[in-house]
Each structure stands twice: as structure tokens, then as C-alpha cells.
Amino acid sequence: MASFDFDTTWHIEAPIGEVFDALTDSLHWPDWWPGLVDVQPLVAGNKYGIGRTQRFVWKSRLGYRLRFDIRITRVCEPCLIEGMASGDVAGVGSWQLHEEKSGTRVRYIWRVRTVRPWMGLLARVARPLVVWNHQAMMREGHAGLVRHLARFPPHPDGEGGSLPSREGW
């Protein structure tokens, strides 16, 4: 099995609350994140989101698909969402949000290992391609989220935009 430690930072010109809401609304990520084929709810979780479990299906730029479940383990609104992955990859993902003068800095840490033998082989033979693929998909996610949030302009009084409320955890 191969291990990967990815650390991605995005800057989003939107209030932290709006970014947090969009990230917690992962059932709708396929609307704006290219490469994300499907998200299915499995377990609802509590009122804070802890325990919520969803199945993600990604199609990589290299042509393979990844299927894994994410179970939310920690939430600190509006600064942190952390979850455990199991399936084709296993490990931990963490969204860390920080408010800045011009918007929100988003840091995503993804520490996973491959589970399927063919993935471990691919990673050993073509690790730079796997890393390139992850980085490309994260760039597309950043661009998609920026476009998604731009659909909800700020209120004239300077308050945040009118994102639809998240459907709850």
C-alpha cells in the first residue's frame, strides 16, 4: 500500500461562513467540482454533523475511479471539518478555514493510503502522475467553488451572500 500526504491551500474571496456552508453541503459538490461523479448519503449524523457518512465516487484525470466513504469525526463551525475515509483509500481529510481581510483561506489536508493492490502498484510506478492528478483535481475544485460562490452576490448592506441554507447534517 502507498501513502500520500497532500496539503492544498485555496484563497476564496467570500466570507468564511459561506465557504463553510458550501463545504458542508457535499451532496451538491458534483454541481461545481469536476471529477466528482457522485455523492450518496449513508448515515445522517448528529446535529453538529458528527457521524455523518457519505459515499464519494471520483473519476480521475488518469481514467480510474476512486470510491470511498467519509465519516465526519470533528466539526468546529466555521473553521474545521474533519473526517475519516474508508474504501479505495483510507485515512483522514481535514478542511481548515481561516478568515482573512479579503476572504477565506482554505487548507485541505488529505493523509491517506491506498487499499487496493492495483492502486499501490500504480503509486509505486507512477507516483508523480498520481500526485499531478490530485493537484489538478484540487485546482478544478477551487475554481468550481469560486464560480459556485460567485452565483450568490453579497447583500448591499455588506453582509454575506444568499447561499441556500445547508440541508442540515
Automatic annotation (TrEMBL):
It comes from the Bacteria. Signal peptide: none annotated. It holds the Pfam family Polyketide_cyc2. SUPFAM superfamilies: Bet v1-like (SSF55961). InterPro entries: Polyketide_cyclase/dehydratase, START-like_dom_sf. This is Polyketide cyclase. It comes from Billgrantia montanilacus.
